[in-house]
Design goal:
This protein is mostly helical. Helix content is 73%, strand content 0%. The protein is built from 5 helices and no strands. α2 runs antiparallel to α3, α3 packs antiparallel against α4 and α4 packs antiparallel against α5. The C terminus is likely disordered.
């Protein structure tokens, strides 16, 4: 179980690189779930960040705000303030964590 989330994330990135979008979306989701289940907070954050990038590029914008929120929350909890700042700068439209509330996007 200690590398399951990493395997899912690598599989997601591979599927994405080969244009296998449905498989990629599923593997990103599994990577997030596995990271959370096993309390790998920083890896959950990374999985959410990469999934947000994937969904944005794939045109699934309805998922992006929630995934960025989760990534920011995980990185903040983990203490990676520089990474949080980087995410916030990269996503100018980000208006802060919504803690499960409806997003404005």
């Amino acid at each position: 179980w200690n590398f399951e989330n990493k395997l899912f994330l690598l599989q997601a990135e591979r599927h994405y690189a080969f244009g296998e979008m449905d498989h990629a979306a599923e593997k990103y989701k599994l990577a997030q779930e596995s990271s959370k289940k096993h309390r790998f907070l920083h890896e959950e954050a990374l999985a959410c960040e990469l999934a947000a990038n994937f969904h944005e590029k794939a045109g699934n914008v309805k998922f992006v705000a929630e995934l960025i929120d989760r990534a920011v929350n995980c990185f903040q909890t983990w203490g990676a303030e520089g990474k949080v700042e980087s995410l916030l700068i990269d996503d100018e439209s980000y208006d802060g964590p919504n803690f499960g509330l409806e997003t404005k996007r």
